[in-house]
Amino acid sequence: MGNKPDIDALLERFAEGNVTAAARLISVIENGGEEAERVLDRIFAQTSNAYRVGFTGPPGAGKSSLLYRLTRIFREEGRRIAVIAVDPTSPFSGGALLGDRIRMQSLSEDTEIFVRSLASRGSLGGISNCTDEVCDLMDAFGKDLILVETVGVGQSELEIAEKAHTVVVVLVPESGDGIQAMKAGLMEIGDIFVMNKCDHSDAELAALEIEDTLKLKNIPAGGWKPRVVLTSAREETGIDDLLRAIGEHHTYLQDKGLFRKKRKQILFSRVRRAVMDKLEQKLRNSETVRDLIDRRMKEVYDGKLSPYQVVRELERIVKID
Amino acid sequence: MGNKPDIDALLERFAEGNVTAAARLISVIENGGEEAERVLDRIFAQTSNAYRVGFTGPPGAGKSSLLYRLTRIFREEGRRIAVIAVDPTSPFSGGALLGDRIRMQSLSEDTEIFVRSLASRGSLGGISNCTDEVCDLMDAFGKDLILVETVGVGQSELEIAEKAHTVVVVLVPESGDGIQAMKAGLMEIGDIFVMNKCDHSDAELAALEIEDTLKLKNIPAGGWKPRVVLTSAREETGIDDLLRAIGEHHTYLQDKGLFRKKRKQILFSRVRRAVMDKLEQKLRNSETVRDLIDRRMKEVYDGKLSPYQVVRELERIVKID
């Protein structure tokens, strides 16, 4: 019993386009467990092919302001938009200056735009465990454009590349050595590079640097050549160029049949991850495993047994038919 | 046959204190597989209780320069030191300015100091999969002090807290909003906070900010109160204060019996991680699993089956005795 009838009711209202129900279903998904799976099983058939665009880059690069501008324009074009922020420093997540936050929140007052921030796994952000699933929910909710904001630190920048059709890397000219190194990772995953705050004197030089680095990339014939765009979100310059670049990448994906291929990759990596999560849970819940660990780890702590001997023993307990 | 006799020979020379053999064994560990396990099984009984100190913080905070200064002093005190860098932007890894790099390399010419950089998992660094194991090797090699440098981005800062007895968080006053957010994660794991480049005008204010934030922490009676130290690695100021803080934390750990407790935690989390890695491998190698995925994923791609139905099916294939 418990919450189950509640979820059915939520799904019903969700199917009718009720925003509150959608928001509550996201919480169900975030909480995980059987309830989450039930929701995801039910909505999966309704997911089609919403276009997922990831925005990543160092904290403070202006990703949120850029998203705000883009969202307003996409909205005027009649797109049905969801904005998912997985960045604790994002104004969408309440992590930034009050002024920004209020501006972003004004988006959510437009009931046609769904704005939601997700709790991130690490304290530093990166990407939430259920970003894919929440994107699916928004897809099933009838959104055709899903914008995901993540902070590009650690391994998270690679994860967004596994989850989005198009990756926009947002950088700022003022970044020092550290950001240079960061770029190394970001270089590999960006379809579009935005040099934001282009009113800064070093912006053009920094954009040229990125273009030079991109030239070193081995792009196969007919492959996508990453675009570099100069913007200033505050002064609304370059936003059209960015929109054009996103449009071009979208067309490219469709022309090459990559849209569906990407979707397959997303689903496959999700299954793999979910299976591993389940197995970890299964191991944790197994009494045999717990007993063995209790017994053997004592010997390991005393230096009598190598950890890898325990690992091999545990491995033998797990059987795959 | 193959490399096996070679590893025995390496282990023999390693036991005699041969540095080249130690370096080659690290490569064996980095490459993983059976050979790595064999090495780790063999050296495990020789690991005792080397003191492991992790240094983390944003790229460019000056972790390497600080490590360089500390290492020279520890060396004069007769400590047997290993420096393990898992930061692609670190001069130890060859990622920084040539001058720094040469200075750091001069350390390795001192045969009593073992310096090694490890390939990191993400493009951005963080921590290597085998940091623990390489620390063990250094421990078995007779090192009593192991300094690990990681870049504090993403989830990696939490990982270093699982691997080191003492965590030193290195920050710089010039950091903006992004770093503020970063601090939120770093605040939780630091035993010692270093405000480096303290010749900067904002350094004292920044250090006070950290102290204020630390006051919000709920420290149990008799618990460790994190220290905040102002340093300038280039001008060699504050290094003594940092050394004292490290010494105090070391004493604290020993007095409270936490040294051994930490070691247990390290070993336990390693076993858990290794088991999961093995299971993932086992799943990947299983024909039953591959067949099922091939068949079912087609239905998922066509929207006929939810990914979670496949996950549940896969889960049933795995049995734990």
What would your notes on this structure say?
Two copies of one chain form a homodimer. Chain A is of the alpha/beta class and 321 residues long. Chain A folds into three domains: 1-45, no CATH class; 46-256, P-loop containing nucleotide triphosphate hydrolases (Rossmann fold, 3-Layer(aba) Sandwich); 271-317, no CATH class. Chain A has helices at 4-15, 19-31, 33-44, 63-76, 98-108, 131-140, 156-163, 177-189, 203-215, 239-255, 258-285, 287-301, 307-317, and strands at residues 51-56, 81-86, 113-117, 145-150, 166-171, 192-195, 227-230, 318-320. A seven-stranded parallel sheet of chain A has the order 3-2-4-1-5-6-7, with helices on both faces. In chain A, strand 2, helix 5 (98-108) and strand 3 (113-117) form a beta-alpha-beta unit. In chain A, helix 1 (4-15) packs across helix 2 and helix 12 (287-301) runs antiparallel to helix 13. The longest helix of chain A is centred in the C-terminal third of the chain and has 28 residues, at 258-285. Chain A is globular. Chain A starts with a helix and ends with a strand.
